[in-house]
Amino acid sequence: MQEKHRKLLIIPAILFGLLVLFLLTKGRSEAPRTSESERATPVRIITVQPRDVTPRAVGYGTVRPARVWSAVSQVSGRVVELPDRVKAGKRIQADDLLLQIDEADYQLALSQAEANILSAEAQLKQLDAQEKNYRNSLAIEQRALSSSKKELQRKRKLAKQGTISASSLDTQERSHLNQLQSVQNLTNSLELIPADRTTKQASLAQQQAALAQAQLNLQRTRIVAPFNARLASVNIEHDQYVRQGEVLAELDDMGQAEIEVQLPIAQFAQLLPRINISELISQGVTPGPHLFNLQATVRIVDSGVEWPARFVRTSAGIDPQTRTVGAVVAVDKPYENALPPLRPPLLKGLYVEVEFRGPPRTAQLAIPGHALHGNQVYIVNSEQRLERRLVETGLTQPGSATINSGIAPGEQLIISDLIPAIDGMLLQPMQSTPRQAVDTGALQQP
């Protein structure tokens, strides 16, 4: 009986042991779950600080010469001289002879014009002499007229006294009228002299113009290069007859090249400084590319070869289909320092990349573009937890953006791709180096 009672006392001890074991096991299983829910997620961050930012934009375009000159024949004739260097692709210097047209006919025209001028000048001298003779003759005839008038008056008195016959008086009156007619004829001739001189002077001017035209035509038989150029095309042969207005060759300027690239209007506007154009005009300042202070660099696509460039103008208008504006840059001396194939010249038709840089903007909060999630960014707050923040962006361009409001200098910005991003989640921030910030797309300082 006592032995049975001892066996029953063992049962509570076993149950108590099982209960202790259950509680220990439950404690160990719940502890990891609590730790897992509060585990900090590692994230890369940058500390947002103000800095100078250079607005940038990149476009692509095709190289073209700044000037293209067409050698158009201004006279007709046979090509009597065509230098061997006049071939498509060849380089020529300013004032080099391109071709010579037969000048024989134009020499004859020049001689004829010179002879016509001598004739017109002789006619004017003859008119001057004629005028002088008329004036001398008029003076004589006026003296004779005066004498005739006095004689007529005397005979009229005598006729009243009856001392001379009426026929004698009639004879004197006729003589006086004839003398008066002579004076009138000379006076009329002198009055016609100015009009005759004007006609002969106009004839002389016409002959002088013909001489100038003949000289010009003679000069036009010789066609030379107006500037250092590369021959784009040659459309003539030696002994070929060319007609006036015919295009004989085309030359591309080697002194300067241009590239026009199309940029979105908003992107181009971000490059420009804030300038009050109306105020400048009122101050007498003429608006121009120099006011924008844009810098540019031209590069061959997928190559390290580049040339400094200048922003010179925009296109005439906005492309209505793409809503872009054409920005034109110029490269001076595009053939200088060429060392093919390592550094080719900036040839016409070459497809290139153009990078624009606007005036630097000071004290900007710049962040990597991928750190912006719509209109939000992720911030590590003072409790090491994620905080979503609404922001207002300023300058936006590929890989970067500036923030006008929503974050303050010194705050920690998450630049990692955080999935999922849960507001209030515990974080383990790791500061990124400047190189890592650039690699993730942050704006570079100028």
Note the topology.
Layout: H1 2-37, E1 41-47, E2 50-53, E3 56-65, E4 68-72, E5 77-81, E6 91-92, E7 97-101, H2 104-161, H3 166-220, E8 222-224, E9 229-234, E10 241-242, E11 247-253, E12 256-264, H4 265-271, H5 277-282, H6 289-292, E13 295-300, E14 306-319, E15 324-332, E16 351-357, E17 361-368, E18 376-380, E19 386-390, E20 392-397, E21 400-405, E22 412-414, E23 427-431, H7 434-439
Helix pairs in contact: 2-3
Summarize this entry quickly.
39% of the residues lie in helices and 31% in strands. It has 446 residues and is an alpha+beta fold.
List keywords for this structure.
disordered C terminus; 23 strands; 4 domains; about 40% helix; 6-stranded antiparallel beta barrel; about 450 residues; OB fold (Dihydrolipoamide Acetyltransferase, E2P)
Biggest β-sheet description: 6 strands, antiparallel, barrel
Number of strands: 23
Sheet with most strands: strand arrangement: 3-12-15-14-13-16
What number of structural domains do the residues give? 4
Rg computed from alpha carbons, rounded to a whole number of angstroms = 51 Å
Output the number of helix runs: 7
The span between the termini is: 100 Å
Average of the residue pLDDT scores? 85
Strand content: 25-35%
Specify the structural class: alpha+beta
**Secondary-structure element sequence?**
HEEEEEEEHHEEEEEHHHEEEEEEEEEEEH
Unreliable spans are 1-5, 27-35, 438-446
Structure description:
One of its GO terms (cellular component) is efflux pump complex. Belongs to the membrane fusion protein (MFP) (TC 8.A.1) family. Residues 103-144 form a coiled coil. Pfam families: BSH_RND, RND-MFP_C. InterPro entries: MdtA-like_BSH, MdtA-like_C. The protein starts with a helix and ends in a 7-residue tail after the last helix. The chain has 4 domains: 41-53 and 361-439, conserved putative lor/sdh protein from methanococcus maripaludis s2 fold, CATH 2.40.420; 77-100 and 221-253, Beta Barrel (OB fold (Dihydrolipoamide Acetyltransferase, E2P)), CATH 2.40.50.100; 105-220; 256-357, no CATH class. With 446 residues, the chain is α+β, with helices and mostly antiparallel strands. The protein is elongated, with a radius of gyration of 51 Å. A hairpin with a 5-residue loop joins strand 13 and strand 14. The protein is built from 7 helices and 23 strands. The model is unreliable at 1-5, 27-35 and 438-446 (pLDDT under 50). The longest helix is centred in the first third of the chain and has 58 residues, at 104-161. The strands form 5 sheets. The chain has a 6-stranded antiparallel beta barrel. A 5-stranded mixed β-sheet has the order 19-18-22-1-23, with no helix packed on it. It has helices at 2-37, 104-161, 166-220, 265-271, 277-282, 289-292, 434-439; strands at residues 41-47, 50-53, 56-65, 68-72, 77-81, 91-92, 97-101, 222-224, 229-234, 241-242, 247-253, 256-264, 295-300, 306-319, 324-332, 351-357, 361-368, 376-380, 386-390, 392-397, 400-405, 412-414, 427-431.
